[in-house]
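>> Question from a student workshop board

For tomorrow's exercise we were told to take the sequence and the ligand below, predict the bound structure, and bring the output to class. My setup keeps failing. Could a helper post the expected result so I can at least see what it should look like? The ligand is adenosine-5'-triphosphate.
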Amino acid sequence: MATLRDEIYPIRSSDDIVKVRQITREWALMQTFSLVDQTKIVTAASELARNTLEHGHGGEVRIQALQEGSRRGLRLTFVDQGPGIPDLAKALQDGFTTGNGMGLGLSGSKRLVNDFDIHSETGKGTTVMIARWK
Amino acid sequence: MERIPILKMGRFLLVTVQVDMHDRLAMTLQDDLTGRIVKDRAHGVLIDISSLEIVDSFIGRMIGNIASMARVLDAETVVVGMRPAVAITLVELGLSLPGVRTALNVDRGVELLKGCIEERAQGNGHVAG
Ligand SMILES: Nc1ncnc2c1ncn2[C@@H]1O[C@H](COP(=O)(O)OP(=O)(O)OP(=O)(O)O)[C@@H](O)[C@H]1O
Ligand SMILES: [Mg+2]
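>> Workshop helper replied:
Here is what the output should look like for this input. Compare the format with yours to find the bug.
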């Protein structure tokens, strides 16, 4: 698998969430994603960036443009050193929230992408990796 | 502070949500709108999201909150101009907006609101005003 581009952006404020959406959109265009595919990956990125900020107390996102054979994709990895998620299975259920959200960020973004991977350790932090292929 | 303008259109209020709102701006809009519904005695709210490239759970929740607050204040809410790609993505995200009507554009939205209000007035035995 070839990495065409690889960058890291901070997630420290609600303006950074806007920035992550814009970058993801640009890169999805660069990878010639269809409009619907662009919309899906940008929406998932928005959800996960907000989780990083609100639940993870800030962190960063690594964004990678990938190519595997003739397949082109986008991978985003959100990393924080926040409180972690004690019960992942629960957190991944539709409607589960410990805040006042709708509890759709994790479960919903999982449905919007092709690859979804989450690691979390209580007291250490959370890493969520998503990828979408065109 | 930056704000989203709220336009008065007869008995209705029109909000055109600009591209890529950050979260604070969305919260301010929610507060501003509730105030304006009361002040302008509005019977309906049109939220034009045609320039929104995505709707995530945060924006979805904001729209849902506006609709329920409007309802308490006796006003109907219609979301207009949702892009097809956004609609497809919303379904997959799992976000349904209960109590929120949608229309293709502002004109259709206005028609829908007028219809709602008439229906309600008839149901209540009042004359539509
Ligand atoms: N990065 C994170 N760090 C710590 N906890 C997290 C993190 N991401 C998610 N969680 C936990 O998982 C729960 C579910 O997350 P999810 O994004 O699905 O819903 P939400 O953020 O509460 O609401 P919504 O995203 O619908 O506005 C959160 O309420 C939170 O408890
Ligand atoms: Mg969330």
